[in-house]
Design goal:
There is one protein chain. This protein is of the alpha+beta class. It has a single domain (20-174), classed as Nuclear Transport Factor 2, Chain: A (Roll), CATH 3.10.450. Helix content is 27%, strand content 30%. The protein contains four helices and six strands, in the order H-H-E-E-H-E-E-E-E-H. The chain is globular and about 45 Å long. The model is unreliable at 1-16 (pLDDT under 50).
Length: 175
Amino acid sequence: MSSDDPIPAPNDEPAQAASVWDQKPIVPDDPSPQLRTVLHFIQGLQNHDYSFVATTLSEDFLMCILPQSLGVPCRPREEWLEKCRRSSLVWPKTFRLDILDINESPGKVWVHGIGTARAKTGKSYENEMLMMFKLSNGTESPDGLPKVLELKEFMDSLYISNWAAEVGKTLNQIK
């Protein structure tokens, strides 16, 4: 156990999240290039593979948490990726996004889903969210796939505020 992991890992390894590609009928058999980028992004988050997530992002990517009343500042690409890498509230690879709906138009993909994970305190995380992606057209990319320019994530603010406060308090008491 490292100092970053105050609670021992569960004896049983958390189940790997199902592939986002298998969420039928929500995810089409032949997704558009921009939807493929978004699905790669989500799969990278589920796999806790931020190097892979980075390949889906434009150099000027910006991540914003909504509603703005939460007071969370928007973060540029490298700052957001580093924050993800350092996050210590949930066990790696326990995050899963169950996609409920996808809405797509040129340059935009909106994903409505339920994010689940397990905190290092053992507390379950289940938060409804809307992820609003703004994408490039792919002409700047060697593989021709669009890159994520911006992600606005709208979440259940009351739930996330209470959950983070409870988990953070428990972790601080253990340290």
